[in-house]
Amino acid sequence: MTLEHGTIGFRTLFISDVHLGARGCQADRLLDFLRYHDADTIYLVGDIVDGWQLKSGWYWPQHHNDVVQKLLRKARKGARVVYVPGNHDEFLREYYGTHFGGIEVAETAIHEAADGRRYLVVHGDVFDMVVKHARWLALLGDTAYDLAILINRYFNAVRRRLGFRYWSLSQWAKHKVKNAVNYIGAFEQTLVAEAHRRNVDGVICGHIHHAAIHDAFGVRYMNCGDWVESCTALVEHEDGRFEIIAWADRDEAMQPLPLPSVVPSEEDSDIAA
Description:
Layout: E1 8-15, H1 27-36, E2 37-44, H2 51-56, H3 62-76, E3 80-83, E4 99-100, E5 103-105, E6 109-112, E7 118-121, H4 129-133, H5 135-161, H6 169-176, H7 178-197, E8 202-205, E9 212-214, E10 220-223, E11 232-236, E12 242-246
Helix pairs in contact: 1-3, 6-7
């Protein structure tokens, strides 16, 4: 695949939990990220489109459409793009095995890394007992999360005016509230157990909006994070090494991790460039 000037190329790129169609989606940051990063293979690891939000009220601004067009353009230019649906875009689960504009739709995938290790790629919601057995509670939690994002947005607008950096209420809660920490740990152990069952070397997932790479349970666990708050993606380098990249907007209002050194290319007149 030919890289555009100023673009960093990876062997594989994993993105999850974009939530296009939701007001909390940071599609502008994802579009910016996609302009500077390419890969031979791109996995869309679920909840790329938020069907739950779109059912309750249509919201689809231009930059959400631009993200879709950008991904389609990458597929046209030679990238293999695999879409593994999640619970928010579960409507796509009726189309396993089909292609849309060069994008494959699959229930799960087995990704073979450059070093020969094999990883199960799955969104992860089917291993979440709340989503699986108490959908009403999951919907309630989703509404509460959206409210927290809205409150956090206004809170951080005030912080920026005062010269403080971005601070995430939900990320703080995930690290500090015991039940949230236990939930994350249980989710990770369940996914690792599935990797063991499938006799693979690790698992790559999304769903819980908590980016991570670790071997705490004896098998490599990797989570892509999200594009609602953390704005993170998982990448595989040509040597099989994995890394989480945290992206940020130009004014560095939100910069949880150092940005990669990139020389920007000239703006393309085509928004999908």
